[in-house]
C-alpha cells in the first residue's frame, strides 16, 4: 500500500474520534504541515520587511550623513509608535541623526534578520513544509509535533532578536559574523552581562539553530520514508530534491555554529577563553581573562556553517524555479537528472570552500591554493543548474504571469552574482576587495534579486493552493518592475564603489575619506548628469553613487507596497480558482482539494510518471499529471509497484 493511501486512511479513522480543534489548536499550536508552512512563510516575510527597514536607515546615513532621518519628528508625535521607535532606534540617533554606534547595530541586525529570520524560514521552512509533503503524496511530515516545536523555537529566537533592541546596551554592534575577540569583549563593563544585546543574540541563535536542526531531520525522514506509491527517486520533483539537499546542509553545517555560539556565550558570561588570546587590552587595561584561546577557531566554526548557508539560501530559489518555469513555458524541465546530480555535487562541495572567507588571516600558500581551487570548482554545478533552467525557456510558449516574471529575472540576476564572485575566489584579488562594497554587491545579487525573486515567484505560484484565491495579476506586475529596477540601482553601483575602495562599514558613506570618495569616472558623471536633469545636485564622484543607491532603495520600498496589499487583500478578495489545478501543473500537490484539507488527499495517490510531462506528443492537453494513468483519469494503486514502505505516524 502506498504512503499516501496508508496514512490517509489512518487520518480518516481518527477524524470520527476527535472533535474539531479550536482556533488556537488549529492555527496557533498546529501540527498540520500546511499551517506550520504558512506560519513560517508569514513570519519570514514580516522579518524580511523589518530587515529591509533597517537597511533603509543605513542607506540614509550613508547617502546623507549628519542629516536627520526623514519623518523623525512625525514619528515622535504619534503616541505609542514614538515610544517603540525611540526605544529601538531613536535613543541611539540624537536629533534623528544616525551615528556610528547605531549604524553598527543596524548592520549587524540587518544581516542576521534577513538571513536567519527571513530567507531561511520563508525559503526553506515555509515552502518545504507546505509544498513537499503534498508533492510526495503523504498526509503530513514524519514528526508533526517536532514540526510544531521547530516553528516555536524559531519564533522564540525571533522575539529574542527583536527584544535585544530594547535592552540598555541596545542590540549587537559587532557585525552579523560576531567575530571574537571583539564580540566577546565589547561592553564587558555592563553590570548585568545577561542583559547585554550580544548575550541575547547568542541565545537567540541557539534557539534558531535548534529549530533548523529539528526541521531538517523531519524533512530528510519524510522524503526517505513517506513517498507515495510509484514515486521513485527519479520521479520526485526537483523541488523535493533541492529541499532534501538543503536539509542535509542544515543538519551538517549548523551544529558548528551552535557550538561556536555556546562557547562565545561561555566566554562572555562565565569567564572562559575559548576564543580569547592572552594579552588582550581594552581601554588601556589588560583584560582579566585566562587567555590561551584562538580567535581563528571562531572564524573556522562560523564559516564552516556560513558557506553551506549560502546554498541553503539559493537552493530553495532553484527549487521553486524548477516548478514555475515548466508550468509557465509548457515544456518539460530540461536536464532534470543533470540538475539533481549538480545539486548533490553543490551540497558536497559547499563544505570544502569555507576558508575563502579567511584569506586575510594569513593562511599559507598551500592552503589558500586548495580553497581557490574548490571555490572555482563549486561554480560548475551552479552553472549547470542555471543553464538547465535557461534552456528550459527555449522554444516554450511562455506565460508571463507575475511568478514567471520573477523567475525569468532571477536567471540573469543570479548570473551576475555568480560571475562577480569568481574573482573573489583568488587570494590576490580578495585581499584588495575584502570588506568593500564589491563583496556586498556580489553577495546581494545572489540573495536579493536572486533568492528573494525566487521566493516571490513561489509565493505567487502556490498562493492559490494555500488560499483558493489567485493574487491580482496587475498588482503582481506592479510589484515586479519597481523591484527589478530598484534592486539593480542599489547593487550595480556597489561594484564600482568597491573597486574604488569603499569600505562596507563607513557609516558616513566615505565622506571623510576624500582620497577614495573624490574619484570620478564615466559612471559618476552619468549619475550626476541624470540627477542634474531633475534639479538635484549630486556630486560627480564615488560619493555621489551613495545617493543613487539610496534612490534605488526608495524605489524598491515603493515596489513592495503592491505586494503587501495584494498578499493580504487577495485572501478574501482575490479571484477564486476554477479548479484544484489553476496553472495546469503536473506534480502531485495539484491533485489535492484547494485549499488542502487535513489529510491532504481524497483518493489513493499513485505516481505513474515523471514530474514534468508537459506538451507530451499524442496527449490531447499540454500537461499530463503524475497521478493520471490516462488524461483525466487517476491511476489505480495496483498499477504501480510499491515505493518505500510508509511509516505509521500520528
UniProtKB/TrEMBL annotation:
The keyword Transmembrane applies. It holds the Pfam family COX1. Residues 23-609 form the Cytochrome oxidase subunit I profile domain. InterPro entries: Cyt_c_oxase-like_su1_dom, Cyt_c_oxase-like_su1_sf, Cyt_C_Oxase_1. One of its GO terms (molecular function) is cytochrome-c oxidase activity. Residues 627-650 are annotated as: Disordered. Residues 634-650 have a biased composition (Low complexity). The chain crosses the membrane at residues 37-57, 113-136, 148-169, 201-226, 238-257, 301-326, 338-357, 369-393, 405-429, 441-463, 475-496, 543-569. One of its GO terms (cellular component) is membrane. GO terms for biological process: aerobic respiration; electron transport coupled proton transport; respiratory electron transport chain. Keywords: Electron transport, Membrane, Respiratory chain, Transmembrane, Transmembrane helix, Transport. The keyword Nuclease does not apply. Coiled coil: none annotated. PANTHER family: CYTOCHROME C OXIDASE SUBUNIT 1. This is Cytochrome-c oxidase. It comes from Brevifollis gellanilyticus. The gene is ctaD.
Amino acid at each position: 500500500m502506498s504512503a499516501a493511501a496508508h496514512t490517509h486512511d489512518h487520518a480518516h479513522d481518527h477524524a470520527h474520534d476527535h472533535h474539531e480543534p479550536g482556533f488556537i489548536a488549529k492555527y496557533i499550536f498546529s501540527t498540520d504541515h500546511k499551517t506550520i508552512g504558512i506560519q513560517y512563510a508569514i513570519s519570514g516575510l514580516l522579518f524580511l520587511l523589518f530587515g529591509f527597514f533597517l537597511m533603509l536607515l543605513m542607506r540614509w546615513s550613508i547617502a546623507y550623513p549628519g542629516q536627520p532621518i526623514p519623518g523623525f519628528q512625525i514619528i515622535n508625535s504619534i503616541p505609542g509608535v514614538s515610544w517603540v521607535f525611540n526605544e529601538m532606534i531613536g535613543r541611539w540617533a540624537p536629533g534623528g541623526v544616525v551615528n556610528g554606534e547605531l549604524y553598527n547595530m543596524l548592520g549587524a541586525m540587518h544581516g542576521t534578520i534577513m538571513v536567519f529570520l527571513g530567507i531561511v524560514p520563508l525559503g526553506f521552512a515555509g515552502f518545504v513544509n507546505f509544498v513537499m509533503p503534498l508533492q510526495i503524496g503523504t498526509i503530513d511530515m514524519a514528526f508533526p509535533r517536532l514540526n510544531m516545536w521547530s516553528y516555536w523555537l524559531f519564533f522564540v529566537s525571533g522575539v529574542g532578536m527583536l527584544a535585544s533592541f530594547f535592552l540598555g546596551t541596545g542590540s549587537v554592534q559587532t557585525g552579523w559574523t560576531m567575530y571574537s575577540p571583539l564580540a566577546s569583549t565589547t561592553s564587558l563593563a555592563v553590570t548585568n552581562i545577561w542583559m547585554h544585546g550580544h548575550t541575547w543574540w547568542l541565545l537567540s541563535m541557539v534557539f534558531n539553530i535548534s529549530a533548523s536542526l529539528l526541521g531538517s531531520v523531519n524533512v530528510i525522514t519524510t522524503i526517505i520514508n513517506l513517498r507515495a506509491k510509484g514515486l521513485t527517486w527519479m520521479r520526485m520533483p526537483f523541488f523535493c530534491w533541492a529541499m532534501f539537499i538543503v536539509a542535509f546542509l542544515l543538519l551538517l553545517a549548523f551544529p558548528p555554529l551552535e557550538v561556536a555560539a555556546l562557547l562565545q556565550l561561555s566566554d562572555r558570561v562565565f569567564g572562559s577563553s575559548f576564543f580569547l588570546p592572552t594579552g588582550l587590552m581594552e581601554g588601556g587595561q589588560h583584560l582579566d581573562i585566562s587567555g590561551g584561546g584562538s580567535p581563528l577557531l571562531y572564524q573556522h566554526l562560523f564559516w564552516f556553517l556560513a558557506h553551506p548557508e549560502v546554498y541553503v539560501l539559493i537552493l530553495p530559489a532553484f527549487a521553486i524555479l524548477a516548478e514555475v518555469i515548466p508550468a509557465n513555458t509548457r515544456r518539460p524541465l530540461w536536464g532534470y537528472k543533470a540538475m539533481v546530480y549538480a545539486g548533490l555535487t553543490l551540497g558536497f562541495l559547499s563544505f570544502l570552500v569555507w576558508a575563502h572567507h579567511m584569506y586575510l588571516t594569513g593562511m599559507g600558500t598551500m592552503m589558500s591554493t586548495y580553497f581557490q581551487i574548490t571555490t572555482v570548482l563549486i561554480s560548475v554545478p551552479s552553472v549547470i543548474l542555471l543553464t538547465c533552467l535557461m534552456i528550459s525557456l527555449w522554444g516554450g510558449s511562455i506565460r508571463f504571469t507575475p511568478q514567471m516574471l520573477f523567475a525569468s529575472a532571477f536567471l540573469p540576476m543570479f548570473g551576475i552574482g555568480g560571475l562577480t564572485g569568481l574573482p573573489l575566489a583568488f587570494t590576490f584579488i580578495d585581499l584588495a576587495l575584502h570588506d568593500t562594497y564589491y563583496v556586498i554587491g556580489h553577495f546581494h545579487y545572489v540573495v536579493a534579486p536572486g533568492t528573494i525573486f525566487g521566493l516571490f515567484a513561489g509565493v505567487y505560484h502556490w498562493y492559490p493552493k494555500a488560499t483558493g484565491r489567485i493574487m491580482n495579476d496587475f498588482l503582481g506586475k506592479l510589484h515586479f518592475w519597481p523591484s527589478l529596477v530598484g534592486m539593480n540601482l542599489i547593487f550595480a553601483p556597489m561594484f564600482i564603489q568597491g573597486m574604488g575602495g569603499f569600505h562596507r562599514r563607513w557609516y558616513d558613506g566615505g565622506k571623510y575619506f576624500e582620497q577614495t570618495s573624490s574619484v570620478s569616472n564615466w559612471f559618476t558623471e552619468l549619475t550626476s548628469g541624470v540627477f542634474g536633469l531633475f534639479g538635484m545636485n549630486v556630486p560627480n564622484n564615488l560619493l555621489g553613487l551613495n545617493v543613487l543607491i539610496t534612490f534605488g532603495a526608495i524605489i524598491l520600498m515603493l515596489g513592495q507596497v503592491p505586494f503587501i496589499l495584494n498578499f493580504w487583500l487577495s485572501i478574501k478578495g482575490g479571484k477564486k480558482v476554477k479548479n484544484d489545478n489553476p496553472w495546469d501543473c503536473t506534480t502531485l500537490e495539484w491533485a489535492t482539494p484547494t485549499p488542502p484539507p487535513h489529510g491532504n488527499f481524497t483518493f489513493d495517490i499513485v505516481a505513474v510518471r515523471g514530474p514534468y510531462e508537459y506538451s507530451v506528443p499524442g496527449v490531447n492537453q499540454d500537461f499530463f499529471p503524475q497521478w493520471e494513468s490516462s488524461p483525466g483519469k487517476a491511476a489505480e494503486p495496483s498499477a504501480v509497484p510499491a515505493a518505500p514502505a510508509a511509516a505509521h505516524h500520528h
